[in-house]
Amino acid sequence: MAGKSKNMSQIKQLLLLKKNGVSNRKAASIIGINKETVNNYMSKVNADELGIDDLLKLDDPILEHRLKGGTPAYTDQRFETFKSLLPYLQEEMKRKHVTLKLLWEEYCTEHPDNHYSLTQFRFHYNQNTAAKKQSPSTILADMRTGGEKLFLDFAGDTMGYVDMETGEIIQCQAFVATLPASDYGFILFVPSQRTEDFVYAIVQCLKHLGGVPKILVPDNLKAAVIKTDRYEPSINRVMEDMANHYGTVVIPARPIHPKDKSNVEGDVRLIYMRVFAELRNETFYSIEELNRAAAIKMKAHNQKRMQKHPYTREERFLAIDKPNLMPLPECDFEIVSYADLKIASNCCIYLGRDQHYYTVPYQHISKTAHVAYTRTLVKIYVDGNLVATHKRDYGKGKYSIIEHHLASKSQEYRGLCAKVYIDRADRAVHILGDVVRHIFYTSNMPAETHYKTCEGLLNLQRCSDPIIFQTACETALKLDRCNYRFIRSLVDSKCAGLLSQSPQYAPPEHANIRGKVQFR
User: Could you tell me the pTM of the whole model?
Assistant: First the structure.
């Protein structure tokens, strides 16, 4: 199928003729295309799991992709084993008196139950040798040295998954990377094009490749480049840190110069056909599920025979890219961000970026903590000492709690507890005392997590009309919605529609609301 591809309308005419029993030669004459082209297309059709009837039902772009894309060169486990042996085989063949048949016999001994025949073994080895020795072409330009560059970009289109809790479709950005010497591609869906997600995608790509190229070539993304310049763009500090960690350099492509990253641009077009199009009718329920499906499609893309070459992208990658990649460092790179945060009376610091609370040992209440956080960890330092380490949690408004950090778990009291807030609320107005009791007695969370709510209610009581505040508290108790936001909204609306029909308040029945109460 080399040369200019045919319109799918012509190919559907061919399929209809074949369905009616017309020979390839006659069909070529009728349609007006070369007989060898007909033979090639029919070889693809005969190898396809769909019959002629089902192929005719496909839309033109899908049919074009199906017939032009081909099928994976090899998909069984034997090839995975063979790939791992390739470097060893290449080195052994350089030694005197060693033959490929001898290596095959050793290979069969090591893998007696799942191995290639000698013919297949020779074929795959020779395919790799051909990929390695193939002279550069218009696609694989001689300036593209194996393992030297990795082009990085985001595809323009997005794919999404369904949030199980809300039913909302969450759109994800498609990170795409290409090694230009082999045209080997990689795809990963991430939540956004923010620097954090961009760097995470690069790290996962390098792990997938099993090594590091000498140069990373991103597009002039906002995530990667602070200032766009024709020849010397300033690199984001995070990208510099990452490049230093991996021992590589970052040289962004020049703006308005698509040839600087032509491989990745071409790969994006193919990914639209071989990933986006093939997954268009599937529904995913997490970004992990989406990425697993995309990885399968991308592997098939890399294992398809290239149209103008007698080898696959994967073969070319294993032959010229993989041997020239630098080794990966022992640990992955993670972005480290910093913040100076005050430790509140509830023994927590509040990480505003995630709107999440993390506990700190109660001895450090009111001090300023120096917080260093990565994608996975939050480390809290006070006076130069590491006092707390948490797994990073992105749950908004939630708490990450280590029990022994809390003052209520220690005999060394810090002067704050549930009883203190209940007494303060009772002195302010009795109904507020009942609200605060309800908050502490009906919660399964540690007392410290409610201190800010109590402070907010006490401040709200001081600046609100007494009758309106009384009505708001009575309504909150009646509806079992004793939280600051609800009571504040009632006060702000001046309890519209409630003042004229407010029932006589009766405290909720609770075994421990009246009488002696034991506080921690």
Answer: 0.50
